Amino acid sequence: MTKYRRADPEISRRKFINVALGTAGAVGGLGLVTALAGVRPPNRITAGKVPAIEGDILVYAEGSQSGQPIKTSDLSDKITRAWPQGKDKDGKPVIKKDEPNNLLIVFKFPTAEIVAPTDLKGVQDGVVAYSGICQHLGCQVGDNPSKPETILCPCHSGAYDPRAGCKVIGGPPPKPLPQLPIKLDAGGVMATGSLSGPYFGLTESDWKSLLEEAKTI
Ligand code: FES
């Protein structure tokens, strides 16, 4: 699946805004503090870009059922790609696919095969979900036909172990794929929190800011 792209434009925009806010702070030091006081920067993300949060339903990201809630009966030890679906401020369902880094991968393994460092509190009946975007340079990860117990990033052969917290087991990725805690709900899959860490391209601090900003959407 190649239609999704890295979110570099958004990240660049965010960095630009951060620079702009820093500049505003410097200007404030020159005497405009009062004028700027109480002025809140506009929201930078939309409901379609908010990261997965507690209560989101996972929906198929591709195939004939695209946009429909995932059925746990369809899941396997191969990748199922998903988007989180939340709600806008009016309660209308929104699939969060405007941010490519929101792409998720979901598996169902025999429960006994799932081991640390997977967060077992975020797993139910062998169903486990992770970010679907490589932590090296932001490509989509995929199944690995030659070593099916692993998943592979096609860009530079980064390899992850989805039964062990998607830890890195080969190639250049600097860290594991963040895990999305889930529970099973009415035959589908629901997020019980946010990703365990920043998706590709964000620092911990940017990630925390983004989650805070998401609460305002
Ligand atoms: S982008 Fe995945 S290994 Fe380089």
Can you describe what's shown?
Residues 91-191 form the Rieske domain. It comes from Deinococcus psychrotolerans. The chain crosses the membrane at residues 16-39. Pfam families: Rieske (PF00355). The radius of gyration is 19 Å and the shape is globular. It has two helices and twelve strands; from the N terminus they run αββββββββββββα. Residues 1-41 have low confidence and may be disordered. It is of the alpha+beta class and 217 residues long. Helices cover 18% and strands 21% of the residues. It binds FE2/S2 (inorganic) cluster. FE2/S2 (inorganic) cluster binds next to loops.
Task: Write the topology of this structure.
Blueprint: H1 8-36, E1 57-60, E2 80-87, E3 93-95, E4 104-108, E5 127-131, E6 142-143, E7 151-152, E8 159-161, E9 167-170, E10 179-180, E11 182-185, E12 188-191, H2 204-214
Antiparallel strand pairs: 1-2, 2-3, 2-4, 4-5, 5-10, 6-7, 7-8, 8-9, 11-12
FE2/S2 (inorganic) cluster binds at residues 134, 136-137, 139, 153, 155-156, 158, 171-173.
User: What would CATH call the architecture of the domain at 50-195?
Assistant: 3-layer Sandwich
Calculate Rg over CA atoms.
19 Å
On the 0 to 100 scale, the average pLDDT is 85
Order of helices and strands: HEEEEEEEEEEEEH
Cofactors, ions, other ligands? FE2/S2 (inorganic) cluster
Q: In CATH, what is the homologous superfamily of the domain at 50-195? A: Rieske [2Fe-2S] iron-sulphur domain
Describe the largest sheet.
6 strands, antiparallel
Strand tally is 12
Instruction: Choose one word for the global shape.
Output: globular
- Taking pLDDT < 50 over at least 5 consecutive residues as the criterion, the unreliable ranges are 1-41
The CA-CA distance between the termini, in Å, is 29 Å
Tally of alpha and pi helices: 2
Structural class category: alpha+beta
- Highest CATH level, the class of the domain at 50-195: Mainly Beta
In the CATH hierarchy, the third-tier topology of the domain at 50-195 is known as Rieske Iron-sulfur Protein
Query: Beta fraction of the residues?
Result: 15-25%
Helix proportion range: 10-25%
